Amino acid sequence: MIYAILALLLLLPTLALRIRRLRDGGFHWAFIFLYFVPMVGRLALLVLLAMPSKEVEIVTINRPKEVESEEATPFE
């Protein structure tokens, strides 16, 4: 009985962590359903979770200081 309660308490955080790891690896969250495929599915999910994170390029927009200091109204 205690193990069943513990399993239910850990289900949601574990699911969230697996989905987050899939998204960091560049995969769609729906790959989490591979867990339900007999034999090969759990191994495939383990491989996907072990893949390195994808590199994300951070793009910033450099605005001139004149643009930042001016106030714009929604009616302009």
TrEMBL record:
This is DUF805 domain-containing protein. InterPro entries: DUF805. It comes from the Bacteria. Keywords: Membrane, Transmembrane, Transmembrane helix. The chain crosses the membrane at residues 26-49.
